Amino acid sequence: MATNVLICDDSSFARKQMARAIPKEWDVEVHFAGDGVEGVQAIREGKGEVVFLDLTMPNLDGYGVLEAIRKEDLPAMVIVVSGDIQPDAQERVKKLGAMAFIKKPIDSDKAREVLSEYGILPGAVS
Amino acid sequence: MTDTATVSLNEDQRDCYQELTNVAMGQAADRLARLLDSYVVLPIPKVNLIEANDLRMAIQEVETESAMSAVCQGFIGSGIAGEALLLFNDTSFSDLANLMNYDGELDRHGQLELLMDVSSLLIGACIQGIGEQLEIHFNQGHPVVLGQHCRVDELLQNSVNPWTKTLAIEIHYTMEQANIDCDLLLLFTEDSVAKLNNKINFLLD
Amino acid sequence: MADSNIEIGDIHWLMAILQNIDVGLVVLDRNYNIQLWNGFMESHSGLSPQVVSGQNLFDQFHEIPRDWFMKKAEPVFQLKTRTFTIWEQRPYLFRFKNYRPITGRASVMYQNTSIIPLESIDRSVNHICLIIYDVTDIAVSRADVETAQQSLSERNRTDILTGLNNRSYWQEEADIIYRQCQNTGVSSTLLMLEIDDFRNLQRSRGHRTADEVIRSLSHCLMETVQQEDLLCRYDGEVFALMLNGVNSDDARIYADHICKRASEVCFEPIGEGITLSIGMATFSTSYNGVDDWLQAADKAMYHARESGGNRVSVFASGSK
């Protein structure tokens, strides 16, 4: 069955780049959200089994989304994809329950590596 | 002059510039944060077409402040040129000196040293970051500190290259633990914008 | 160029360019030891690459402050960013003598420097490159412009005939003293001085001689005032003098002295002394600004003139 993947980023360009970076062999259904509020809503609807989450967003930022997921105990594996790569930011999101941190700009090799590492990508890693 | 094609910017392009800048300033902030051991608050950059008059007003405000508080630096690569303007709005030099571990006297000369060091980092990292994503190698000229040997009113009067409207990327940096607040403005020449838009369109495809 | 295939022959001419280019190129390793030293650096320092190669930068060039330079260079190693120094910060990095006896007007070469990271194949930065630009011409012409601007602004505040401050500059400065009096309560005294019967002098001896008298009087006044006092040629044969921080008693002594001295001293162009009418007004909170104060002194001067000249009159509030 296809995995529901949510890409949550305020930039449509970044959403497209992220979608392109998703490994071709992975059976997914991709959903999009343009800010944190839309993102949380989509996760509630079960569209975000795996979430690629940006940090700097209007309305509700990435940190807010992570907090909401934790508070409502939503079933989502979150990979933060951010341009803010300061050590502090990486630490904060890990504490808030993010599974991994990928720095922008993203490419498919990096995405595959992280997904394999956490066993999300089936059949990968020999 | 055939390069006076009107400068334009559509929504997709604006979004793309914003995202490229976001990533570039993230890299800049990361360098600064590591060097200063302080978290840099990252806002969403503003991408706009700016009128010459707006810039004039921004620079004039600098002039009314008696302290030196602005640094300009030109950059050029692959025929795309522009200038970065770093404006320190509400910045305490003593906070800056603390962060930078600067223990000299904070006279005019000391302030100049600080401005040069901070602007090298902020401007350089941001320009290189944008350049890398667009596969452009930007060369940077030497920084000019406004108000030092370069009088702002003369700057405004003697502009040889009158332009009316051009692409501006605006980034507002603040520091979490110190009274530091500055705006970085990246301004491209009018004829660079079309080339830049081409590069962007290529990414958007 | 970077990804084209460079052949041995090409390296040869690239090296020739490096040697002949008119900017300084220096490559330093992680310990600030010199790895490359191009022709520009050799020519200006008089040190050949063989001599400096492998030497530590700071041992070899004591004019470069280690701490200062490392503040600029360490970010280049650590963060792969470029940094810059400009001549306004430090006139030069390397102390090179000016090498042009005719057109060179500074004693040293002013320099701007770029410090750029050199990436190794593994993308780490173990070397940095200094690019040294000779900006002496720019620095010198900046200095010229500043001197010119300064002399212009001096000209703007000077009376041409006497070399004293002119009226508009005096008024600005007097305003500062007025506010000091207001804020600190320290009193100052304003004198207005006028040459008696000046029109007569002009008519009988000619304008040129009359001008000479004005000039002589201004020298005479300048010799007697203190540095913190403020003197100007106010108008024609009228001078204004702000005695900064001087109360009315001391000012009266001074005014009487100057009145006497002018009448006794021999003014060269006319071979005799001149008489003055001096009006005096000490600061009072009733003055609504410097103009008010001036008007008071002016009234007193008018009174001195009307009383026959060669005297000092003191403004008393209530007098007309």
UniProtKB/TrEMBL annotation, chain C:
SUPFAM superfamilies: Nucleotide cyclase, PYP-like sensor domain (PAS domain)
Residue ranges occupied by any GGDEF domain in the UniProt entry: 186-317
First-tier enzyme category under EC: transferase
Reaction catalyzed: 2 GTP = 3',3'-c-di-GMP + 2 diphosphate
Enzyme Commission code: 2.7.7.65
Coiled coil: none
Annotated Pfam families: GGDEF, PAS
NCBIfam families: GGDEF, sensory_box
The name this protein goes by in its record: diguanylate cyclase
Organism name: Thalassolituus marinus
